[in-house]
Amino acid sequence: MHAYRSHTCADLRSTNVGDDIRLAGWVHRVRDHGGVLFIDLRDHYGMTQVLADSDSPVFSELEKVRSEWVIRIDGTVKARDPELVNPNIPTGEIEVYVRGLEVLGKADELPLPVFGDQDYPEETRLKYRFLDLRRQSLHDNIILRSDVVKSIRKRMWDIDFNEFQTPIITASSPEGARDFLVPSRLHPGKFYALPQAPQQFKQLIMVGGFDKYFQIAPCFRDEDPRADRSPTDFYQLDVEMSFVEQEDIFATVQPVIQGVFEEFGGGRKVDTDWPRIPYAEALAKYGSDKPDLRNPIIMQDVSEHFAGSGFAIFAKLLEQEGTQVRAIPAPTGGSRKFCDRMNKFAQEQGLPGMGYIFWRDQGEGMEAAGPLAKNIGPERTEAIRQQLGLEVGDAAFFLGGKPEAFEGVAGRARNVIGTELGLSETDTFRFAWIVDFPMYEKTEDGKIDFSHNPFSMPQGGMEALDGDPLQALGYQYDLACNGYELVSGAIRNHKPEIMYRAFEIAGYPNSEVDKRFGGMVNAFKYGAPPHGGCAAGIDRIVMLLADEANIREVIMFPMNQRAEDLMLGGPTDPTNEQLRELHLRVVKED
Prior knowledge:
Layout: E1 20-32, E2 36-42, E3 47-53, H1 59-62, E4 70-79, E5 94-105, H2 122-127, H3 129-132, H4 136-158, E6 162-163, E7 180-183, E8 191-194, H5 199-207, E9 212-220, E10 233-242, H6 246-264, E11 269-270, E12 276-278, H7 279-286, E13 300-301, H8 303-306, H9 312-317, E14 324-330, H10 336-348, E15 355-361, E16 366-369, H11 371-388, E17 395-401, H12 403-420, E18 428-429, E19 431-435, E20 440-442, E21 448-450, E22 476-481, E23 484-491, H13 496-505, H14 510-524, E24 531-537, H15 538-545, H16 576-582
Parallel strand pairs: 3-5, 6-9, 11-18, 12-19
Antiparallel strand pairs: 1-2, 1-4, 2-3, 4-5, 7-8, 9-10, 10-24, 13-14, 14-17, 15-16, 15-17, 19-22, 20-21, 22-23, 23-24
Helix pairs in contact: 4-6, 4-15, 5-14, 13-14
């Protein structure tokens, strides 16, 4: 017999009754029933109940066993009494009578329990992540992640993509986030960088004559953490294709992503109709470039009803160029209590408040209530109601100013309203391609800079760059699902002359482009095919499938909010010897 086990803790069934077997695993629970010990023995695969009474030769040794000890037992499979069968586990029809025991690893008193799903401080869970991973919910998430990656790989192979690996140590390349720099020992004073993404390499693969590339790629960005983003590293499905247009990318990616959600969505509905929503439309209607389409609320511009009205705040705002008043309809939200709650929400988001109107039945007809209704009068109020399609018992909320100043809050308010009023769908995954991203944006100091991916082909090519750069659109696209960005990509700018011009507009002279991206620009001078691709966030995909709100719940060994590894103690202080080898000196902060 094998030194540790003849079966896993999920293998045994009623057909094994009478067999002499060997199991190994962790002691999940110990129950003393007065002379009879019951132990739930757990391994990666499942759970088996084992027991011993005073007739067992190892009973006294088994009495010493505690939770999370690792043990090996020898015993005989027995059928449970019918009334004691546990239908919730595959091994529920049997139990194992213990005749032999070996303690393989004792456990100290646990800093957090493995049994159950009690809430424990995240810092404790991350410090003892090896224990946290034994908890069933987290264990299941990590297995789900493995299965999702396996499925993605197979789906990509099945459509004739080749998997290639790109370098981990490379040159610094600004891609919108901070690099993790790696000092070079052989080249004192110079630094490598960990790749923010395989962007340049995958484009060079296309220039090298390969047609369809993918990789489950690690990416490294020194970012501030968020609930849906790791502060150090993450994994993405990285894709690039030659001789393609935007629609070719969509047609390739949708079956892969949709198939994964159908396979692992647990029966939840997976939307198959993925609309194309222009970036500007997404912000206007949903207040976000990653809208949650499970929520049916669509915001509308109602500026005309407040221009010159008795509500001076909005009326004066609208006299300024580039301002707008936007309404967020709230079907069934027509109570003063709910309206006051949403007004408080806006204040918590840093705005002075959020105006509202709600419509109620006064017995003799509908009445519009709220401060705004009184200020703008019944005619304007009725026009707003008709435009928004609202009825008795409904409400509408209003925000005004320059859209970029209030759109984010409006988008969050839309989500809160949809959730609190029960308007948003549940158990559904809804997708949308966000397209027509602007190539450029104006920074706070009035300069022109890239708004998204600098390597994107402008729509219209060189001609699009001859006019107002703020009107230029790129062949850039994101895939949104349930309020998260899952995929981001673009058709690439593969022509050196257009690339030089695009960077020139953003303030980068040709010499700077050659310095930063010389390898790629040089390659494009030797016959580059039209190409494009995208990257899908593995962590976010699994987070949605696992129905988790925090991305750290689907990562094996995540950092904490301060980008610290509490388990292994990173980041650490370098030794003086290491600093000397790298020709570095640490300058302490004041």
